[in-house]
Amino acid sequence: MKQFLHNRKAILEKIPKGVVMAQIGVDIDLTQDILDVCSPRELFVVHDFHEEESFLNRGYKAELLKAVKKAFKDSVTVINETPSDFFGSIDFDVLEAVVINSAMNPDYDTTIANLYDSFNAIAKGVIVGNGYNFQSVRAAINLFCSNTCLDVELITRERGKDYSFYLIKV
After folding, report:
1. I need a surface site. Which of 43, 53, 90, 137 has the fewest CB within 10 A?
2. Please, what sign has the CA dihedral across residues 85, 91, 93, 95?
3. Confidence grade of residue 56 (pLDDT, cut at 50, 70, 90)
């Protein structure tokens, strides 16, 4: 049965302290919340910072990478590759929690790929994310849960913010 919590920090408080975590998709505020609330033993911030061929966003990803490194210096390990590449390179039982920033890219295919990659990367632990207020994200989560026999345990409904979700793999 789903339990509703008032905000993202309340969901992050449910993650055991001191675990090895990955954050998929950069959001500096989310990273800071993870560090403050979860006190992870190690936090991998995974984002593909390679430049895309577009005049409109030229230099954006390089500036974002610089901002993340400046904000968190030695507090996080920044991984400059796609989530799939990261999950493919990490040992199966290293991660104990994954936080997916689905609100950054609420695309169905990206969300479902990140959910399955996270599921396959952790032996047991939690998968948390945001963007639950987007229909595409909810649809991906619903299909993922039905295929893996997991349930959405917790949801936030914070006014003016992206809703968050919490799944447990035991």
Report:
1. 53
2. negative
3. low
Residue 133 amino acid letter: N
Whether the Cβ atoms of residue 68 and residue 31 lie closer than 8 Å to each other: yes
Length of the chain: 170
* Residue whose pair of structure tokens reads 């026999």 in the numeric block: 149
Distance CA 163, CA 141 (A): 13
DSSP code string of the chain: --EEESSHHHHHTTSPTT-EEEEES--HHHHHHHHHHH--SEEEEE---SPPS-STTTTHHHHHHHHHHHHHTTTSEEE-S-HHHHHHHS-TTTEEEEEEETTTS--HHHHHHHHHHHHHHEEEEEEEEE-TTSHHHHHHHHHHHHHHT--EEEEE--TTS--EEEEEE-
pTM of the model: 0.91
Which residue is listed with tokens 């030695």? 74
Write down all domains in the chain, each with its CATH number in brackets.
3-169 (3.40.50.150)
